[in-house]
């Protein structure tokens, strides 16, 4: 790292690696359940300040790697719970696998640091702005490469209370990441020098303008009510993942969910992901018909999380699905974005099955472009499990759908931070689309979120219960629904390109001083 002659190697390592690692770990406080959004910006500013003082692209990359490792070890440690507690992987092996996964994710901020110092090596406000652009671009890459893992995208940390959340309906989660990174860049540039120079004033002015713009956008209403509220019953069965697929527990689980559905008062009743622990065509005789007949008599619809199968060639093909029964015609939505190692095994990794004991790891993918489900007189955009962390996929069902619905089984995460983090990602989807999001989960967090991204009702985690909510269907399309991630990527490219072009045309003049 760039340092004076009197600096020891230990001090250089502390600044270049220790500070970014601690900043990355602290950034977790910006995410649910803490929601301390300024901490995430301050953490990113600390990283950018280290990057500005780095002596080379390699040093910036190492600092970025330390930041990414701290962030993911603090925030994605639930992977160990999934692998060891529920996947039966031995604890040492699960710990190694979790560390390697976090180490892989740390490559992305490392790449951002390397690219930023490579393209604009002379720092200053222009360099900091380029860092913001590269950080956002790399987060987008992380969201699709190798099927994508946009968990802990920094933009989520600003939902729902930060002024920067106002950018969500315009440029989506990656655009909010860019805004947060730009705010951090302005802070870093202002702190890089103690002199009150024009550049420092420009950085502070840019930060103020950004915050004001976000606050003003929060006032805007991008969609309109499309009818009266529809009553919804969101079921949370609280079935232990250890017991869910056991033969001796299956009958009790089916009976419990049937009882909850019959007791529910909503016009639309939603059961969690794979709530019924049996193939749809292998449910007990009369089970599905009883629920459907009751719903039809009451003028209601039921959305069931289940596993469908169909015979294709010489074997069965399985689908993680949501099906409807009741007053509306029967329909089905099949999950499109599957979880690697949880719902499918990537080619070349078949040996993992010998270690993990996870049922149904060979799901088929649902067709792209599936329409929303019609229930209760409105259209519902469906996302199963972590599909709702891919905003660009959910908007495929818009603007036709009036309400978003997510069914999930976050029991795989145990009592970690993951379930609350997942809730925050759903809050982002509500903000991006200007629509209510309702969530029915096995163990939590079952909740109703309004079009402003605010949680208006929720059940406690790890309890059996029914959450009654009244989402208002909405019509229209936010700019993000129309443009997807294109606008955010264009702005990020601008943040990268303008400083680079400026540097080539107008090289930075060295400051006057002794010996010059």
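^ Assign residues to that structure.
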């Amino acid at each position: 790292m760039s340092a004076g002659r009197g600096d020891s190697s230990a001090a250089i390592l502390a600044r270049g690696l220790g500070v970014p690692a601690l900043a990355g770990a602290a950034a977790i406080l910006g995410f649910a359940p803490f929601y301390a959004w300024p901490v995430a910006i301050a953490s990113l500013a600390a990283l950018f300040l280290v990057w500005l003082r780095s002596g080379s692209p390699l040093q910036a990359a190492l600092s970025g790697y330390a930041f990414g490792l701290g962030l993911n070890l603090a925030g994605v440690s639930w992977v160990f719970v999934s692998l060891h507690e529920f996947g039966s992987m031995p604890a040492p092996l699960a710990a190694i696998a979790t560390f390697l996964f976090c180490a892989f994710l740390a490559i992305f901020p490392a790449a951002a640091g390397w690219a930023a110092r490579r393209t604009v090596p002379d720092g200053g406000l222009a360099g900091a702005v380029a860092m913001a652009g590269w950080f956002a671009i790399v987060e987008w890459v992380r969201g699709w490469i190798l099927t994508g893992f946009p968990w802990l995208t920094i933009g989520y940390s600003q939902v729902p209370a930060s002024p920067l959340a106002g950018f969500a309906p315009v440029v989506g989660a990656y655009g909010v990441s860019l805004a947060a990174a730009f705010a951090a860049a302005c802070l870093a540039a202002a702190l890089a020098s103690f002199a009150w120079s024009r550049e420092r004033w420009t950085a502070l002015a840019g930060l103020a303008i950004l915050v004001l713009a976000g606050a003003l956008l929060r006032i805007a209403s991008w969609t309109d009510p499309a009818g009266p509220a529809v009553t919804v019953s969101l079921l949370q069965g609280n079935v232990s993942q250890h017991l869910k697929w056991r033969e001796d527990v299956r009958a009790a689980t089916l009976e419990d969910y049937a009882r909850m559905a019959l007791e529910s008062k909503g016009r639309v009743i939603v059961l969690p992901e794979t709530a019924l622990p049996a193939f749809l065509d292998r449910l007990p005789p009369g089970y599905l018909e009883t629920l459907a007949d009751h719903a039809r008599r009451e003028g209601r619809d039921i959305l069931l999380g289940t596993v469908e199968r169909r015979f294709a060639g010489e074997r069965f093909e399985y689908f993680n699905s949501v099906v409807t029964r009741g007053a509306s015609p029967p329909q089905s939505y099949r999950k499109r974005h599957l979880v690697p190692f949880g719902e499918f095994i990537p080619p070349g990794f078949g040996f993992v099955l010998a270690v993990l004991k996870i049922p149904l790891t060979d799901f088929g993918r649902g067709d792209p472009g599936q329409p929303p489900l019609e229930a209760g007189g409105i259209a519902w955009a469906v996302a199963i499990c972590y599909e709702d962390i891919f905003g660009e996929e959910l908007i495929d069902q818009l603007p036709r759908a009036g309400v978003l619905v997510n069914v999930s089984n976050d029991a795989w995460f145990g009592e970690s931070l993951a379930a609350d983090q997942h809730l925050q990602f759903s809050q982002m989807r509500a903000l991006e689309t200007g629509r209510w999001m309702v969530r029915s989960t096995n163990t939590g967090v079952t909740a109703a979120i309004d079009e402003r991204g605010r949680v208006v009702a929720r059940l406690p985690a790890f309890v059996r219960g029914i959450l009654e909510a009244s989402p208002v269907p909405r019509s229209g399309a936010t700019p993000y629904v129309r443009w997807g991630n294109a606008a955010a990527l264009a702005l990020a490219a601008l943040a990268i390109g303008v400083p680079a072009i400026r540097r080539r045309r107008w090289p930075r003049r060295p400051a006057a001083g002794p010996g010059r």
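The chain has a mean pLDDT of 90.
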